[in-house]
């Protein structure tokens, strides 16, 4: 047993309203730079839809992820190492910018410079690649809320095997949102595809990163990732990807997408896993067993044997404590209501999804819906508007039973809460039918519905004794992110030392701006206490 | 070196050594100060249809051409004689193989240069040093192909192994035969000069990616783990990374 810790995320799709706040804040923090205009480390897709980039989920087309060879050994779907080196001058599996969408801006200057006249000036779109005029054809969010669905949605690869059953007529149409970030896989195919060895998985928390100084722009990581969550910065010629906001995680804070999520649907926590079992799990023969296989690599942080092994492998005790309180462990491993996205890619992805319940498609049946009776609760699960097969193709490699079990459990949590609220008497066997105790379901209710901040985000800080090495970075004349085109973009960011919410509200959050004015730093404010200098003194408008 | 004019010595001795010096010092500087800029700067994201043909043609053709130079220039004529390869066999082999390599390279460079000049998305990423290197490459390739096809395949042949090669090898042992080069046909002289200038530009252009061909990928384990522990900080001054403007300010 080799115990490793993995920082991971659960997203509760039931709560996603598709507002794109996560996308916007992520974009502002990480990819608001030349060269990454088309890059969304976090994006929210409307499903069904072909996604961003186009049809990325179809690995027969893009050859991302892993597959099993004739002898059942795991190998990269795009081919072996030699084949990669020989095709290094032209990567046959790389999406083009048009698959993501040619990034554009608008010629706003024209609105200001236009001469007086009767026709209103309009701001034409300009390509960020060439600076020349262009017509938009596609973009990361082109399909929002089923836009264009009549033409394209049936090309969604998740409809495989159910094309003739599904109709997207107005009255039968369904949709839900799927926010996506990098999966920070246990068996990352991007890292394995990188010929330079520039990509790596961090030993401490499993975050997958690109070493910008070692990347040589061979771009196999981009095509190797089946989720297409590694991007090529067209200006620097280097790969970039979701960082799991590691500077925030190291400071014990949630990622920016989680922090700003309006629906509060994201959960962050540690999961312990046995690194020696990863290869075996990823090589599971039947892809429908991959979800179970992935669960089998996780370790129980309450098990004394695991605790001893973790101590031996250098997992700090406060991290063990965080692993025991981890909402991800609760949702994905203990309650088994969160599922991995496309386990059939064999990367063992570590961003998990609680599948969405949806309205019952048959209105007549819904009228006679009695949700204290398990028979009707379960019957309606099969009549949900979002077809179970579709969810199964997304989350369990097509194994419908697993999705049905999860949705039943979620429905039972609701039924019991509803019964409690209305003073009804639920059928005694309701919890048992989903293999849970009343306490389990109560825990689930608290985690999913109450969803306190401190229960959603259990992020242990990076260790201070390790930070001696990190300090070497701080002693540089500049921040490593703070370069032209880098995420810091030359600005002076908030003071890292006072970057912990809850510490001395207001007190340490004062800083002087370039003009010498005293200001209040909202970044570090915990929402309590006063906010001196947040607003300028009145009466002195320029 | 006796009997050579100052100009000849400057051209055929000083220039090559200067180029070699810039090449070595330039690479050390670039490696230490600009790891971040050390990349192939692929434009496949922007354009793939032409690259699909141009890039493999050019690169594999170039490998063949480099191999030809190793055989023809670095390996002395006496060695192939000693192996028992007759002169005319060698000549026909070099002319035929050289022609194949030349066709590959010229095909590739036409596609790549055309793409770089004519496709707006690619053109926008083109640096000034890219243009210089591309021009030099064109000169080197054209002046390399012309004698290969015109003289060695269809013409009477020119035994560069007893002239140009002697001068070239002499540079590396400190005894360049200037007269051998100074009396060589003009086209070989242009070829050699442009090639030296390329060596001088090499460390400052995207050509550095050639040294990063990731051969060790064949042996390394698939998944790379690294500790969060920071490595030695990079040297001050490396933050001044300069990139060209592409398109509009965004």
UniProtKB/TrEMBL annotation, chain A:
Iron found in the keyword field: yes
Cell compartment(s), UniProt: Cell envelope
Region (Disordered): 484-542
Pfam families: Fer4_11 (PF13247), Nitr_red_bet_C (PF14711)
GO cellular component, one term: cell envelope
Occurrences of domain 4Fe-4S ferredoxin-type (ranges): 7-35, 173-204, 206-235
Keyword annotations of the record: 4Fe-4S, Electron transport, Iron, Iron-sulfur, Metal-binding, Oxidoreductase, Repeat, Transport
GO biological process, one term: nitrate metabolic process
Example of a GO MF term: nitrate reductase activity
NCBIfam families reported in the protein's UniProt record: narH
Protein name from the UniProt record: Nitrate reductase subunit beta
Native species: Leekyejoonella antrihumi
Gene name, Swiss-Prot/TrEMBL: narH
UniProtKB/TrEMBL annotation, chain B:
Transmembrane residue ranges: 12-29, 50-72, 92-113, 133-158, 178-202
Localisation: Cell membrane
Membrane topology recorded in Swiss-Prot or TrEMBL: Multi-pass membrane protein
Biased composition (Basic residues): 241-250
Region (Disordered): 231-250
Superkingdom of this protein's organism: Bacteria
Ranges for domain NarG-like: 9-228
GO biological-process terms attached to the record: anaerobic electron transport chain; nitrate assimilation
Protein name: Nitrate reductase-like protein NarX
Record organism: Leekyejoonella antrihumi
């Amino acid at each position: 047993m080799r115990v490793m810790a993995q920082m991971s995320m659960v997203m509760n799709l039931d709560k996603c309203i598709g507002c794109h706040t996560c996308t916007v804040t992520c974009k502002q923090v990480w990819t608001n730079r030349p060269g990454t205009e088309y890059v969304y480390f976090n994006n929210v897709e409307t499903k069904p839809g072909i996604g961003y980039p186009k049809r990325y989920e179809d690995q027969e087309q893009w050859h991302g992820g892993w597959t099993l060879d004739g002898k059942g050994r795991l190998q990269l779907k795009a081919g072996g190492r030699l084949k990669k080196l020989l095709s290094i001058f032209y990567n046959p599996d790389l999406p083009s910018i048009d698959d993501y969408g040619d990034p554009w801006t608008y010629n706003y200057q024209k609105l200001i410079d236009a001469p007086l006249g009767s026709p209103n000036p309009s701001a034409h779109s300009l390509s960020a690649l060439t600076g020349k005029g262009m017509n938009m054809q596609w973009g990361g969010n082109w399909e929002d809320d089923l836009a264009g669905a009549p033409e394209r949605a049936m090309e969604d690869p998740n409809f495989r095997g159910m094309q003739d059953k599904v109709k997207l007529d107005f009255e039968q149409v369904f949709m839900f949102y799927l926010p996506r970030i990098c999966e920070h896989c246990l068996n990352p195919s991007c890292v394995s595809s990188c010929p330079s060895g520039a990509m790596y998985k961090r030993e401490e928390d499993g975050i997958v990163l690109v070493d910008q100084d070692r990347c040589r722009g061979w771009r196999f990581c981009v095509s190797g990732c089946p989720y297409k969550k590694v991007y090529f910065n067209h200006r620097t010629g280097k790969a970039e990807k979701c960082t799991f906001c590691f500077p925030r995680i190291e400071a014990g804070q949630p990622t920016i997408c989680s922090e700003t999520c309006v629906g509060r649907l994201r959960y962050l926590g540690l999961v312990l896993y046995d690194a020696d079992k990863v290869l075996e799990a990823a090589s599971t023969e039947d892809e429908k067993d991959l979800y179970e296989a992935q669960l089998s690599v996780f370790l129980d942080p309450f098990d004394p044997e695991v605790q001893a092994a973790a101590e031996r492998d250098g997992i700090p005790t406060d991290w063990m404590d965080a692993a025991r309180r981890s909402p991800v462990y609760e949702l994905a491993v203990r309650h088994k209501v969160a599922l991995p996205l496309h386990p059939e890619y064999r990367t063992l992805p570590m961003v998990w999804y609680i599948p969405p319940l949806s309205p019952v498609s048959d209105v007549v049946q819904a009228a006679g819906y009695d949700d204290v009776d398990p028979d009707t609760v379960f019957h309606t699960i099969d009549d949900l508007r979002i077809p179970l097969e579709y969810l199964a193709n997304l989350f369990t490699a097509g194994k419908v039973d697993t999705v049905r079990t999860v949705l039943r459990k979620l429905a039972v949590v609701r039924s019991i809460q509803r019964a409690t609220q209305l003073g009804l008497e639920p059928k005694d066997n309701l919890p048992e039918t989903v293999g849970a105790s009343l306490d389990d379901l109560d825990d689930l209710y608290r985690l999913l519905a109450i969803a306190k901040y401190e229960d959603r985000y259990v992020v242990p800080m990076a260790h201070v004794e390790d930070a001696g090495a990190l300090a070497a970075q701080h002693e540089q004349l500049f921040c490593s992110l703070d370069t032209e085109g880098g995420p810091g973009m030359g600005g002076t960011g908030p003071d890292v030392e006072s970057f912990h919410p809850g510490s001395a509200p207001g007190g340490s959050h004062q800083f002087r701006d370039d003009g010498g004015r005293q200001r209040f730093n909202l970044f570090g404010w915990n929402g309590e206490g006063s906010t001196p200098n947040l607003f300028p003194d009145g009466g002195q408008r320029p | 070196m006796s009997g050579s004019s100052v100009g000849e010595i400057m051209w055929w001795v000083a220039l090559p050594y200067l180029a070699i010096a810039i090449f070595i010092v330039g690479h050390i500087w670039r490696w230490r100060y600009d790891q971040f800029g050390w990349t192939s700067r692929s434009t496949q994201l922007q354009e793939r249809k032409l690259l699909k043909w141009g890039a493999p043609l050019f690169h594999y053709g170039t490998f063949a051409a480099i191999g030809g130079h190793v055989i023809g220039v670095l390996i002395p004529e006496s060695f192939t004689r000693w192996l028992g390869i007759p002169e005319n066999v060698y000549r026909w082999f070099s002319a035929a193989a050289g022609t194949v390599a030349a066709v590959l390279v010229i095909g590739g460079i036409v596609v790549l240069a055309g793409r770089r000049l004519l496709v707006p998305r690619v053109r926008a990423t083109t640096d000034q040093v890219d243009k210089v290197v591309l021009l030099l490459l064109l000169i080197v390739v054209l002046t390399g192909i012309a004698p290969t096809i015109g003289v060695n395949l269809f013409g009477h042949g020119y035994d560069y192994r007893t002239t140009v090669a002697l001068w070239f090898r002499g540079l590396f042992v400190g005894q360049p035969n200037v007269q051998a080069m100074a009396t060589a046909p003009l086209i070989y002289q242009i070829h050699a000069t442009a090639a030296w200038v390329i060596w001088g530009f090499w460390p400052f252009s995207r050509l550095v990616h050639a040294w990063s061909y990731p051969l060790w990928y064949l042996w390394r384990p698939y998944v790379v783990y690294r500790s969060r522990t920071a490595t030695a900080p990079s040297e001050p001054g490396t933050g001044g990374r300069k990139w060209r403007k592409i398109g509009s300010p965004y």
